[in-house]
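User: Run a structure prediction on this.
Assistant: Running it now.
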Amino acid sequence: MRRHITLISLLMVLPFLSNCAGIRPPSRKPDVVRTLEVTGYCRCGKCCSWHRTWYGKPVYSSGPMKGKRKLIGITASGKRASRGTIAADTSRYPFGTVVNVPGYGFGRVEDRGGAIKGDRIDLFFGSHRDAERWGRRRLKTQIWLPD
């Protein structure tokens, strides 16, 4: 009986754990090895340039979307930001580009940011504290462009 309860508990938790796996490494060699400036970000207003109006609606704080509604935690590609989400200059690294960042692991470009140009990427973290702890680093990365 105890074994059945353990098995059922494990089966109930497994779907949640599978989402924590992150991005799988591509089976081919990287297209590019490049040193990038790598910073961290989270979904907070400070990292993503948004604030709440007096009646609580989140809006963009600056840029061409200033004052327009902001969907918190949703990337420019329409996906929910989670560990492994990378923001990049999509004219250089299009959505779907996979990057292996030392100390972080594999991530996929699913977002962009106004200050992100050229060889610079932002890694998503679940908290502002973790994003700040990562800081700003120059790292040699492996990059797989989408097919």
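Strands lie at 32-41, 50-52, 58-60, 85-88, 98-101, 105-111, 120-124, 136-144.
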